[in-house]
Amino acid sequence: MKRRYWYVIITYVIMQLSGIAGVPLLHFLGVGKHAKNDFVATEIASGYWAVISFSIAFLIILFFLREDIKQRHTRYSVPLSAAWMWAIGGVFLALFAQSIAANIEWRLLGIEPGSENTKRIVEMIRVTPLLMVVTSIIGPILEEIIFRKIIFGTLYQKYNFFISALVSSLLFAVVHMELEHLLLYATMGFTFAFLYAKTKRIFVPIFAHVTMNTFVVLIQTIFADEIEKMMRQTEQIQLIIGGF
After folding, report:
1. Which processes are annotated in GO (biological process) (predicted)?
2. Which position among 143, 144, 181, 209 bears the catalytic label?
3. What is the pTM of this model?
4. For a designed S-S bond to 205, which of 28, 92, 195, 229 qualifies (C-beta 3.0 to 4.6 A apart)?
5. Which of 73, 123, 176, 178 is the catalytic position?
6. What is the tens place of the pLDDT at every residue in 145-172?
7. Cα–Cα separations (whole angstroms), residue 113 to 60, 61, 163, 233, 235
């Protein structure tokens, strides 16, 4: 692995662990002091620290990858027009793969649908809306750089697609710290790895990942009340039908 890639990974790991010191520091500086309780204050501080740490890490990683950014795409890359078709189609492919994996977890493995990690992020976004920039844009970009471009890309030079995608996808799943949803995250990892291997352009899985995350965040934040209302109406209809 290239030395600059190690620098990128180290930066990412430090960013992930930085909240141990960063969140208490923001508490000390008074961030969230007007919150209604300590829990909300912690959520606000955590949200702002995520914005700060991810933004700084993003800039540092771009600096380390400046040579990669300047390099032209190889002759093995698909044409730009085809890459954009894969990027747009990749959004639907990712949503379809996620749906299949979620149903397998629920119906075959008995794992309750829903992600505690996602729920917590949504709660943090509600008190720190700026965090949406991290969850929808910066976070997915960094994950694709780390897990697809660097880890998968490096392994793919020596091993076949399945082994390379499996290792990078499992690491991708473990980082999300929800081992009960290992299949779900690994499936997403395989999907994004496929898009990268197929096109040799990292912006393709980045676009699919960013769009999917943005869609999920919007659904669970801005349209949360409407969805809950629709679910209640559906339950009422089912009760009425069941009464006949």
Report:
1. CAAX-box protein maturation
2. 143
3. 0.86
4. 195
5. 176
6. 999 999 999 999 999 999 999 999 999 9
7. 36, 34, 28, 21, 18
Whether 209 sits among the annotated catalytic residues: the reply is no
Beta-carbon contacts of 56 under 8 Å, excluding residues fewer than 6 positions away, are 15
Instruction: Provide the residue range defining the domain that includes 58.
Output: 1-72
Mean pLDDT of 70-92: 84
28, containing H or E segment: helix 19-28
Tokens (6 digits) for 124: 């943090």
Helix axis angle, 203-220 to 224-242, nearest 10°: 60
Whether 118 and 211 share a structural domain: yes
How many domains does the structure of the chain reveal? 2
Let me know if 112 is a catalytic residue: no
State both tokens at 64. 């380390």
Handedness of CA 196, 199, 202, 208 (dihedral sign): negative
Sign of the alpha-carbon torsion through 131, 133, 138, 139: positive
